[in-house]
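debug: dumping io for the single-chain case to check the tokenizer round-trip. Nothing else runs in this session.
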Amino acid sequence: MSNDKHWGGMQVDLDVDGTQVAGLPRFQQAVFQGRRLRQFAIGLGALAAAGWLLAFFVGLFAPQSLWPALLVNQSAGLLVLVAGLQSAWWVTQWRARALNPVVQVVVADEVVAPVGWYERLLDRLSQRWLRMLVQIGAPTLWLAGWSLLTLLSIEQVWNLALPPAALGLSVSVGAAFSLLLAFGLLVLERQLAQENVAQWPEAASLAQMTRVAIICLVLSAFCLLLGSETSVWSVRLAVLIGLLPGLVAAELLLRALLSLFSPQREQLEPALLARSFVADMLRWPPQPLLALQHELHNRFGIDLRQIWAFTYMRRAFFPVLMVVAIVGWSLTGIHEIPMQGRGIYERFGKPVEVFGPGLHAGLPWPLGRVLSVENGVVHELATSVGDTPAPVMAEPAEGPAPAIANRLWDASHVNDKSQVIASSRADKQSFQIVNMDVRFVYRIGLSDQAALAATYNSADVPTLIRSTASRILVHDFASRTLDGLLGEDRVGLAEEISRAVQADLQKLDSGVEILATVVEAIHPPAGAANAYHGVQAAQIGAQALISRERGAAAEATNQAQLQASIARDQATASAREINATAQAADLRFGAEQKAYASAGQAFVLEQYFSQLSQGLANAKLLVLDHRLGGSSNAPTIDLRTFTLPADAAPPRKTAQPGAAN
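debug: decoded output
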């Protein structure tokens, strides 16, 4: 027999005790147990697959529904159980083969060696992968595959933001089916739990795995039956159900990975791989330390009961825990007060002292406690706020001004409060409405009496200040007019309001000190401001129209003046030009007259030649002299035209003697 313990028995080594397995009950029941495990695994696997398919089709039409998460989590619980059943089935198969060994006849086939280098490489890789898969083993691969599939399916439907919705008649059907399936699994769990360890060592672990699926189904039925259209907890619980099978699947995956580093022998009886520490804690009362002790003892052979240090720690655990609890409870009487705060120390519910900043000691809780009070912290309070004030957002220094800084009259502000003021028109008395933004800067008084009053005399200091200020403002503004508010009364308005509010707060013994009162704005209501802006817009439009017409008239006048000036300038220029021409002609005539008187006929001939040169400046001349060719042959001009070939040069006109006179 081997020295490794296995569920209260001993693991069988066929090399040593091969002939004794026939007398062991677990080997005798191996075939029957394997048949049962196979039937249960196939049936539960079919139910898990049906749940996944139904969740897939429901998710296509209603992705935000509760059903996909619920069905997938139920299927995950069943799949974890299927993984455990299959892992136990591998063990029963080994026992059945060990009880009835099958003699394998090996027929030697002719091995054809691969020819090319590529074929040899593929053959070498395939043999290497086959050897690796054989070394890992099918149980490890199947268990890792089931675990990964469970984790991936839970991850796909994990969504804690699912909205609640009405499910209709399907709630009753789904809850009934879940409870019916849970009852069937409960019967299976009871049968497995009552199995004898000697006949079926894996039954106890399978019973724990069955409880995982039962808990998932029962919680799913509760979510369906107790949920409603407005209940958010049922939707959250339906999603959180996947944590239990997810933790078990993660542990099984880890066990499958760690099994790769464990030595495996074909002749040694295998241990159940799909065991879960998380599922083993699903018992009442829970005993996690005992389960951990058994796990260490079975896995590593470490018996914590034989270690003196752990025995002493177990005996001293509760006394040490009591001492630590008493010391921790005593330390609740030590109180730390920050620099910007104070504390009112209550002993047996009665205020005794006001603590300043620092460390202070008193009775532990609940005999003594300290209530926090502000110490000099300054607050700003508006007399009116909206129902749902928007959160204050920090604006960048270089960015645009925030919307709260808009002080235009045509915009309604959340801090504006409407007040009724007096109005006088001639001999008639009436009233007017104005919007104003009045703010108070306050703090809790620095004295101990003020701290006690602010803590015990008022439940909400800002509400007390706001209600008191509203009453003071209504009473004060009822006797004021708009002209006074916008004129001389505004100078002392803030001081009068501050004194009145402070006096009322002192009468109430509130412990509040008003530091300043700021009147941010006083203006008509937004509706009146809009109407006033309409009047202003009409006036601006009329003034713009008048200015536009005046501009058109000025433009026409300037255009006429321009045209007249142009005509006058043109006439003046023409007259000047004519006068200059006449003066030039007169001067030329006088000069010619003087030249004729001096030169006589020579001047006339010179003028003649000059005019002739100007007239013939651009003319083509042919000068004929009668002295050419002698007296008998006068020059002639040949004016005949000749037709020449296309490539011939144009005819030249030549003077021939005797052609013409």
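debug: round-trip ok. The longest helix spans residues 526-599.
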